[in-house]
Each structure stands twice: as C-alpha cells, then as structure tokens.
Amino acid sequence: MTTTGTTLGNTFEALYGHAPEGVWAAPGRVNLIGEHTDYNDGFVLPIAIPQAVRAYARRRADGVLRLTSTRVPGEVVELDVAGLAPGGVAGWAAYPAAVVWTLRRAGYEVGGADVLLDSDVPAGAGLSSSAALECAVATAYNDLYGLGLEPAEAALLAQRAENEFVGVPCGIMDQMASMVCRAGAALHLDARDLSARHVPLDLAGAGLTLLVLDTRVQHDLADGAYAALRAGCERAAALLGLPALRDLAPADLPAALGQLPADLVPLVRHVVTENDRVERAVDELERHGPAALGPILTAGHASLRDDYRTSCPETDLAAATAVAAGALGARMTGGGFGGSVIALVATERAEAVAEAVVGAFAAAGYAEPQVYRAVPAEGARREA
C-alpha cells in the first residue's frame, strides 16, 4: 500500500477491529462525446480518469454490512443485508448497499462486510462518482465472495443497483467506463449490446491536454429532471414506432421530427445528432488524431445547451470562455444541470485557458472552478 493506503488500512483496523482483506479501486470517468445516448441504446466515447473510489473491505459471517466513508468522518452505517430494500437506506450509504442488495436479488449468495470508502472523485461534478462507488464495491464483493463476474456483468449489476435501489434511471455508460476502460484509450461502447472497443487516445503524444473544469455547481440526478428526459425520449421512440431513438438514422431525422409534438422535437434532434457525433469522433480520432475532436466537442455542447437543455449558465460560460481563449473545443460532460466542462487544449495553452475560465467566473460572481487534467486511466482493479 501507499502511505495513504497504509494510513487508511490503520483507520480500517481502528474502526472495525481487524485489517481489511484487500483494497479495490474503480475510477470516475469523463465522457468525451455521447451524452444522454446510452439510455437510448446509442453510442458513447468515455475515458476513465485517475481519480477513483477505493474500497477497503473484509467479509463478515453474520450478515451485517458496516459502511464508513472518509468524506463523512466518524459515521458508521450498520445494515442487515437480508433486510435491505429500496428506499430503506438514505444518503451516501444507499449506493454501496444497493450493490449488495442487487447481488443478492440476482441470486448470488453474498453476506456482510466491513467497508471503508475513500474517494478523490469530485462529487456532483459530472465525473460519475456514484458509479465509481458502486463499481468499487462490486469489484470488492466479486473477489471477497468469489463470484466470478466479468467486468461487463459487474457493470450491469451496478447499473441495476442505481436504477432499482437508488432510483436514478441512468444508462450503462458510467458503470461500463468505470469497469472496463483501459489506460491510454477511449471506450467506444454500443449501449445496446455492450460491444466495445478501445480506441487509442494519446493526448500527450499529440501535444494536447484535456482540461476538466469543475464548475462546482452541484447536480442531483435523483431530483426527477433526468427521469423526465429519459421518459420523453422513450415516448418519442414509441410514437415513431422504434425500439429506441438509436434506430432513427440522421437522414430520416427531418421527416421524423415532423411527426412529433413540439416538446419532443429538440430531445430527438439531440439524441440522433449526438449518436452521429460519436461515430464521427471515432472516425476522426483514428484517421487524424485527437486534435480533430475539438469541433465535435463544441457542437455537442451547443446541442446540450439548445436542444437537450441540460446546461446551465456556469457550464455555458466555461465552454465559451475556453474556446475563446484558444481551446480546440469544449463541452459540458455528464448528466448536466451543473457539473464539469471538458476543454481540449494545446498543452502550451492549458494554463492560459484555465486562467481565462477562472477569471470569467470571478467576473460573473461565480464560485471559483476547480481545474483538473484528465488522462485516460485504467478501469476497476484490485490494488492490494
């Protein structure tokens, strides 16, 4: 273990009276392009990031799940795994509890555990801290109880945990990115059949930096707005006689929009054009390298802002300022209603772009954004 890991191992032992059996990590993610397409059976292109949730864990034989988090010092949540039920666990503990409940519902004979969670994935920043938490616990339980789950199977169970226990009708992208991404590559994922391939993404070799500009506007996808968007997309697909909006080709979009009520038109236009942007992004990345992604990112933000309407003044300001300061492209990433903006920047311009965004936020009276540099990182794994 690292020094920090050793310290947290000691914290675990002080809390629970014994050492952890291991440490498991699952990363957050940045989605390059493909927003709100996964629950429409579409395409996405995320990367995992170095920031991760780590689960220090040990099995228990008495059916008790004890949970603590370094973000809530001193709080230990104790639960009976046999009594877990949707709506029965509040706050942050609902996410790890959801994973255990889902495993049991799926027929896996898993019991309790002592778990200490540590995270450096910013919460509420659109970087998928909740999926990272779910995937870290799923990865730990997979090893502790010898379940033999493949990464995609674990991702599906983690998604089910968030859908059915937590109550957020998310698609599969976040959990798949956390479980299966590879260092140095983006994940080109088909959300319908989970076919995936790893597309090399050498930002440093191209002289580029991917900035993550966390606006610090917190979002909560459980507040109903996300569910309303998904319901609108499903209604549109039904009206068009399609299994999902993924089945609407760009060439057929104008005619299809004429058949829909006005409130569904912008949702459908975003999903269809965004799927097309993912496919174009992969093609450009493989043919011309990562610099070619810039205009696609900017077009994606415009669609989220004007059609899907999941942006906000802070994310709009960050994206516009970054491009004006020299970024090749910028867009909101994640579910929306706050969170982060990514900006693809020539490395020699990265500091200037970051400073321009910080200055624009100060001038607007907004809280100072947090700035990170994202590199494609490894998916879920055992660390100790």
Descriptive report:
The protein has about 375 residues and is of the alpha+beta class. The protein has two domains: about 200 residues, Ribosomal Protein S5, domain 2 (2-Layer Sandwich); about 170 residues, 2-Layer Sandwich (Alpha-Beta Plaits). β3 and β4 form a beta hairpin. α3 crosses α4 and α10 crosses α11. The radius of gyration is 21 Å and the shape is globular. It starts with a helix and ends with a strand.
Topology, please?
Elements: H1 3-16, E1 22-33, E2 43-60, E3 64-69, E4 77-80, H2 94-105, E5 112-119, H3 129-144, H4 151-166, H5 173-180, E6 185-190, E7 196-200, E8 208-214, H6 225-239, H7 253-257, H8 265-288, H9 294-308, H10 313-324, E9 329-333, E10 340-346, H11 350-364, E11 370-374, E12 381-382
Parallel strand pairs: 3-5
Antiparallel strand pairs: 1-2, 1-12, 2-5, 2-6, 3-4, 6-7, 8-10, 8-11, 9-10
Helix pairs in contact: 2-3, 2-4, 3-4, 3-5, 4-5, 6-8, 8-9, 10-11
List keywords for this structure.
single chain; 384 residues; alpha+beta; Ribosomal Protein S5, domain 2; Alpha-Beta Plaits; 2 domains; 8-stranded mixed beta sheet; 4-stranded antiparallel beta sheet; 11 helices
CATH class of the largest domain: Alpha Beta
Q: How many E-type strands?
A: 12
Structural class: alpha+beta
Strand content: 15-25%
Shape: globular
Can you tell me the residue ranges where pLDDT is under 50 for at least 5 consecutive residues?
Answer: none
